[in-house]
Write a structure and sequence with these properties.
The complex is a heterodimer of chains A (about 550) and B (about 350). Chain A folds into four domains: about 130 residues, 3-Layer(aba) Sandwich (Rossmann fold); about 80 residues, Helicase, Ruva Protein, domain 3; about 210 residues, Rossmann fold (3-Layer(aba) Sandwich); about 60 residues, no CATH class. In chain A, the strands form five sheets. Chain A has a six-stranded mixed β-sheet, with helices on both faces. A four-stranded parallel β-sheet of chain A has the order 1-6-5-2. A three-stranded antiparallel β-sheet of chain A has the order 8-10-9. Chain A is built from 22 helices and 17 strands. Chain A is an alpha/beta fold. The relative contact order of chain B is 0.14. With about 350 residues, chain B is of the alpha/beta class. Chain B is globular, with a radius of gyration of 21 Å. Chain B has two domains: about 190 residues, Rossmann fold, CATH 3.40.50.300; about 80 residues, Orthogonal Bundle (Helicase, Ruva Protein, domain 3), CATH 1.10.8.80. In chain B, the strands form four sheets. In chain B, strands 4-7-10-1-11 form a five-stranded parallel β-sheet. At the A-B interface, strand 3, helix 5, helix 7, helix 10 and helix 11 of A face helix 7 and helix 11 of B.
């Protein structure tokens, strides 16, 4: 802020966010607290709690909650005991017009997020997402989109600037606070200047401005309210800096630059002049021959990690494969006929329940089991160095696109890491989207040294992340086996190879599935050594085309 | 609105659901007050005129008012006649075999709002197709069927947000039901079939995942929604949204005349639809267009013609013209083009190219 007045500290802003949220919890949707558990977070929550009315429901969302608990349904134990249907209230409905605290929000699945947002529409509660994610981990965007505040909790929030009674009065005043057109226009113009395309963010900012006006006892929000709203709601969402003078109109100051620039959609800097940008293309060479060769090679290997995740037994969904004794909770589904069948032989021994025809006990419960196809992620590590670029980069691009085209039905993901020059770069984060893949690959340049170890490092990190998310990673390294740069930037083949082998050992220790594709015109011995070190297979593809490569990887994923 | 809670509380007790209904009559944002999004509004209106068009797929950005539009349309449509207490929304005089409410002597017909049912991501199969009624089975030892979301959506709308992230086994299920208009349940010792004809409305963001081609093809129309990028439109969107939030009743009253006009227009179009003529030369043009664009199968032609008749009726014309065809081609065809992972041209451009070629500039 260039203003002469003292700019509010992050702590004061965070405290203000809690106040505004307490004025209009349902309308503002909630907040995302992205920080580690600790004093800062507890303080913020305590601030918020102190301002909410005492009778407002406040619930915590247990991680990994099942549908029954979330949405409510038949309470089996009570039903059996009383002999008549007993409904239990779902957590979402129980939170009606209250506040839902969601620990470990970065682990929320999209499905749960979908229910939470639908529930918010129906039951009007606010959500406070406690996001402890590192780097790439974050709560589903469909969820964070609807939560107004992302307070900066790098320092502890200040004490509440308003008392509970002031907040209660503001809550009562809020519906009568109306913004004039000029203010609405200013907020929208600011949102555009900050590169925010979604209309939800400015809508939330407007609401925050109204809440702030209500809090200050004004009938309509003024410039200071708008400024606060822009800072709290739009600031953390900005993807670019507003151009200073003309474009950001009064009465707002352009917001401060966002703490972390999250402009992922920024076009990649394609200024490297001598870089060779190659188009994806088909190669028309002996695809059949190579695919069969690859198939034979890959099947011979005992399918370990790749297989384990590819299909797993689930209690929730998939194709039914029988039943087992157990309690129908946490989303496990009761197998009714088997349950009754288990109860029948004991009927003479058991006292008859008051209203029911049959006495069922806990030990009779049978639950269904399913076989679920879990998602796989193929991580391509592509050597984009000068030596590889000329003959292999185009094939690698083509293979990724072909694989993606088949991903609709398999629900597999593809990621691409390219390494060249000094470092590796995650060119395409795991995606099922053809649109994104094409965009990312189109600009893949070639040229420079071969930092193979850096590329494999990046692949290892990504594979760990994917595994944590419950998917099965398969790493495909496409290299000509001529690594010539170590992780610390030292050049020379021996150090580079030594580094690459060290990463390979780590990969083996964690039992990741790896396929090393030797793309050199003549097979290089180092590729085979590398594959052996990481417990994977080496596939020399002297004449490989995009189709052959896609075929080989497909078999690897299915094996 | 019953629809908004459909996805979240499908297993609520029947008594409770009934008790909750009057309270749930929440006002929804008026359909005619939606700013921009002409394609979305037109396609939904056409589906209201002729539900056999096969639904709408809306792909695009988050938070563009897709679900607002669909709920708004359902609220705008006149209530339909149904048998009281019927879980399948049966039309009076056309009972579902095995339906208790309809089998009753002299079933009572009542007016009910057109249902909009949400299908949440990660919904279990039980919930979608229906399952053995646990309450009855446990308490009374009776084998009864508890209808699922498909039954509730009959004669209404089935809305799937993030349809591109839907799990495969549910997609398979939906494909089958959408094609046959009938839900067949063979599980838990039950053997039930009931009608399930609904307008399938899906939405999603293609950046997050692709939709299987088979499911893509099932949607009659496909449209692209984007967040408006010009400032005046954006301001208008937020202003109306804000006005509605502050005073829903007043805002709805303001738009009442427009809503009624559109309702009358849709009803008139429904009446007119059977009398709309499709001249041979238009038919020929439609076939030519599909061939030029390179669509898979005959579904493209069928949808194009059906939608064109709907549009003619919607505009009060008794004959389909080439102009109707031309305007509808992108919506009806862009998701049916044979896909090549290496062809970069956006489908819309390819359809536009075909239109140019067939109709001339």
């Amino acid at each position: 802020m260039t203003e002469a007045a003292r700019a509010p500290s992050p702590g004061e802003d965070a405290a203000m966010a809690a106040c505004l949220l307490a004025v209009d919890p349902a309308g503002l949707g909630g907040a995302v607290l992205r920080c580690r558990p600790g004093l800062e977070r507890d303080r913020w929550l305590a601030n918020l709690r102190a301002l909410l009315p005492g009778d407002m429901p406040q619930r915590r969302l247990p991680p990994g909650i099942g549908d029954d608990a979330l949405l409510g349904g038949l309470d089996l134990t009570a039903t059996l005991a009383r002999g008549r249907p007993v409904q239990s209230l779902g957590l979402l409905e129980a939170t009606r017009a209250g506040v839902l605290i969601m620990p470990m929000a970065e682990r929320l699945s999209r499905a749960t997020a979908a229910r939470l947002t639908a529930g918010q529409e129906a039951h009007g509660y606010a959500m406070v997402a406690l996001d402890e994610g590192l780097e790439d981990e974050a709560p589903p965007p469909a969820l964070t989109d609807r939560l107004a505040f992302l307070p900066d909790l790098s320092q502890a929030p200040a004490a509440n600037p308003f008392s509970p009674s002031q907040v209660a009065a503001a809550r009562e005043r809020m519906p009568r606070v109306a913004a004039d057109d000029a203010l609405i226009e200013a907020i929208l113009a600011t949102a555009m200047a900050c590169g925010i395309t979604s209309l939800r963010a400015p809508a939330l900012a407007l609401r925050a401005a109204r809440a702030s006006a209500a809090l200050h006892g004004r009938a309509a929000p003024d410039a200071s309210d708008a400024q606060l709203a822009v800072r709290l709601v739009l600031g953390p969402r900005a993807t670019m800096l507003p151009a200073p003078p003309e474009e950001a109109p009064p009465p707002d100051q352009p917001p401060e630059p966002p703490p972390e620039n999250e402009s992922k959609a920024e076009p990649r800097n394609s200024d490297a002049m001598e870089d060779v940008v190659l188009d994806a293309k088909h190669a028309v060479l002996p695809a059949q021959l190579l695919a069969t060769l690859a198939a034979a090679g890959l099947r011979a290997r005992t399918p370990t990690a790749g297989k384990q995740g590819a299909e797993r037994i689930s209690l929730k969904r998939g194709r039914p494969i029988g039943t087992r004794p157990g309690e129908p909770r946490n989303g496990a589904r009761i197998a009714l006929l088997e349950t009754l069948r288990a109860a029948v032989p004991w009927q003479k021994l058991r006292p008859r329940p008051p209203h029911a025809a049959i006495a069922v006990r806990r030990e009779d419960f049978r639950i269904k089991r399913f076989r679920e196809h879990s998602e796989s992620t193929a991580i391509f590590v592509v050597d984009a160095s000068g030596s590889a670029a000329l003959h292999r980069l185009a094939e690698a691009k083509g293979a990724v696109e072909l694989l993606l085209a088949e991903c609709y039905s398999r629900r597999d993901r593809v990621a691409v890491i390219a390494f060249r020059g000094k470092a590796a770069e995650l060119l395409l984060p795991p995606t099922q989207s053809l649109v994104r893949a094409k965009r990312a690959l189109a600009g893949l340049p070639g040229g420079g040294a071969s930092p193979l170890a850096s590329g494999m490092d990046a692949a290892l990190a990504l594979a760990r992340l994917e595994r944590r998310a419950g998917r099965t990673p398969l790493i495909v390294v496409l290299t000509d086996g001529r690594a010539n740069m170590a992780r610390d930037g030292r050049t020379g083949r021996p150090v580079a190879e030594e580094d690459a082998l060290a990463v390979a050992k780590l990969l083996q220790a964690e039992a990741h599935s790896i396929l090393v594709v030797d793309t050199a015109p003549r097979p290089q011995p180092f590729s085979a050594t590398l594959a052996a070190a990481c417990g994977g297979r080496c596939l020399p593809l002297p004449q490989a085309g995009a189709h052959a490569l896609a075929g080989a990887v497909r078999i690897g994923m299915a094996a | 609105m019953d629809g908004s809670i459909a996805g979240t509380r499908p297993r609520a007790g029947k008594a409770r659901r009934k008790a909750a209904e009057p309270v749930r009559q929440r006002l929804v944002f008026p359909f005619t007050a939606i700013v921009g999004q002409e394609e979305l509004r037109l396609s939904l209106s056409l589906c209201a005129v002729d539900p056999s068009i096969g639904g709408v797929l809306a792909l695009g950005d988050r938070g563009t008012g897709k679900s607002t539009a669909i709920r708004a349309l359902a609220a705008l449509l006149p209530p339909m006649r149904a048998i009281q207490g019927c879980a399948y929304n049966c039309e009076p005089g056309k009972p579902t075999p095995g339906c208790e409410a309809c089998a009753r002597r002299a079933p009572k017909a009542v007016s009910v709002p057109v249902p909009v049912v949400d299908l949440p991501l990660g919904a279990s199969e039980d919930r979608v197709v229906g399952a053995l009624d646990l309450e009855k089975a446990l308490a009374q030892g009776q084998k009864a069927f508890e209808p699922g979301l498909l039954a509730r959506a009959h004669r209404g709308f089935l809305y799937i947000d993030e349809v591109n992230l839907l799990e495969d086994h549910l997609v398979d299920l939906l494909l089958d039901v959408a094609a046959s208009g009938e839900n067949v349940v063979e599980r838990d010792g039950l053997s039930i079939r009931h009608p399930a004809r609904f307008v399938l409305v899906g939405s999603g963001n293609p950046e997050e995942g692709e939709l299987r081609p088979q499911l893509l093809d099932r949607f009659g129309l496909s449209i692209e929604v984007t967040t408006p990028s010009d400032l005046p439109t954006r301001i208008e969107v937020i202003k109306r949204r804000d006005a509605f939030e502050r005073d829903p009743a007043g805002f709805c009253a303001l738009w009442q005349p427009e809503e009624e006009a559109l309702r009358a227009r849709i009803l008139a179009a429904r009446d007119l639809l059977p009398r709309v003529v499709l001249p041979d030369d238009v038919l020929e043009m439609a076939a030519k267009l599909c061939m030029t664009a390179g669509t898979d199968g005959l579904r493209g032609e069928l949808t194009l013609m059906r939608t064109a008749r709907g549009l003619a009726a919607f505009e009060g014309a008794t004959e389909v013209s080439l102009d109707h065809l031309r305007r509808l081609a992108p919506m009806a065809l862009r998701h049916r083009l044979r896909r090549s992972p290496l062809d970069d041209a956006v489908a819309t451009t390819r359809v536009a190219r075909a239109v140019q070629e067939v109709f001339g500039p």
